[in-house]
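S2.1 Query sequence (Acetyl-CoA C-acetyltransferase)
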Amino acid sequence: MAEAYIVGAVRTPVGKKKGGLSAVHPTDLAAHTLQALVERTGVDPSAVDDVIMGCVMQFGPQSMDIARNAWLSAGLPENVAGVTIDRQCGSSQQAIHFAAQGVLSGTQDLVVAAGVESMSIVPMGSTITAALEKGMPLPFGDRWVERYGTQEISQFRGAELMCEKWDLSRDELERFAYESHQRAAKAVANGYFKEQIAPVNGVEDDEGPRPDTTLEKMAGLKTLREGGRITAATSSQISDGSGAVLIASERAVREHGLVPRARIVTLTLTGDDPVYMLTAPIPATKKALAKAGLGIDDIDVVEINEAFAPVPLAWLKEIGADPARTNPNGGAIALGHPLGGTGAILMTKLLHELERTGGRYGLQTMCEGGGQANVTIIERL
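Output structure tokens follow.
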């Protein structure tokens, strides 16, 4: 049976909105990560079969196939192609899946899976805003309306619906967010992320964690929706960042003298209610564990994207995972969520944490627009 191995994973620091990475062109940001991946793995870049890059707002400086443009901007060989994909927030986790599937199919041997988003330069919703300015219709046409009506479809409403369904209080959300900041601040202070980060423009550490935040400060914030429970403090941060992972076949490992660091165990994708939008990691995780023949107690480290606090909290309640093993170094509430870059960034964090702690199995999942979720389970080697 064919295997797909992770032989390298690197990321930029995650920059906060208008922070240290905000002036870096997104193509250059992604190029920096690709260059670091090639240098750290020692792979012959001309042998790479494809570069698959996630990016959500493929608009303006992130348009025109940023995967190809970033590879060339990194000074890497022209013979290597690149493609940019959009599975919303899970775009670069899906890039990892496509890369692994190419290797598992036997049609490819070396594939780069990456992701990038500069939310400072290309704000979330840029494509919708541009369409509205030109009088173009929104993504939901007549047949969507026939099925789901004219109700609001948004991540913000989905987060509030989750709070209601799982009876999550504002206090519970804020305690989770506070813990995310404390874990992230500890990880930064202890240097847990140093080996996985390729510094950019003098920025060496993630800019998002707020070690001095308090529950009292959080309680004083206005909710994002009148009468709601979600605030900016219990939401992921608007961020800039990039990550890249190199996936290799057994033949590539042997022929190029590469060192496998983890094995892809299983890859799953699941859809759920698009109105709730953010709930799919729950059924996706159940599906992935069953496919892998594992229980949640077999998983040593979990990275679940903290798009909003109710996402991991509801997941924890339904899956029964150990909170101490879930986002042990904080999540997107503290560290930020650069949309298309987050999947590759989370995989980089997951791999390095397994290596730091000696854990065996790691699981990554994230909610995605349209009510979707990827799950990737890896085994450290």
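The first strand starts at residue 5 and ends at 11. Strands lie at 5-11, 15-16, 50-54, 82-85, 110-118, 239-248, 262-271, 301-304, 361-368, 372-380.
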